[in-house]
Amino acid sequence: MKRLPTRLHSSSASEKLVWLHIHSNPGQHSARSLAADLGGSSRTWANALSGLVKDGLLVVEKAPAGIHGGKYRVQVQAGGPTPETHLSI
Q1: pTM of the model
Q2: Helix axes 31-38, 42-54, angle to 10 degrees
Q3: Helix H segments across 1-89?
Q4: DSSP state at residue 3
Q5: Tens digits of per-residue pLDDT, 30-60?
Q6: Residue 57: Cβ-neighbour burial (10 angstroms; 0-12, 13-18, 19+)
Q7: What whole-number distance in Å separates Cα of residue 57 and Cα of residue 1?
Q8: What are the two backbone dihedrals, phi and then psi, of residue 31, each rounded to the nearest 5 degrees?
Q9: Fewer CB under 10 Å: which end of the chain, C or N?
Q10: What is the DSSP letter of 77?
């Protein structure tokens, strides 16, 4: 299971899901592609993307333009632990 950053603990379930999805699959994403990958509505994923960017949990490497999605990656905290995978025993 992946460890979520502490700042993400109080976020909505949709923001947590988007963060985990982009952590596992950095690159080109849009609200439509997230809806296709994760189900749900495009509006839900657009709100989650904008909230994560606003909170500094995602970095926009290339801004979305028109019908083309943006390029995103997870923000790694400077000096803090990086998100990692842990095994449950």
Answers
A1: 0.78
A2: 120
A3: 13-24, 31-38, 42-54
A4: P
A5: 999 999 999 999 999 999 999 999 999 999 9
A6: buried
A7: 19
A8: -60, -40
A9: C
A10: P
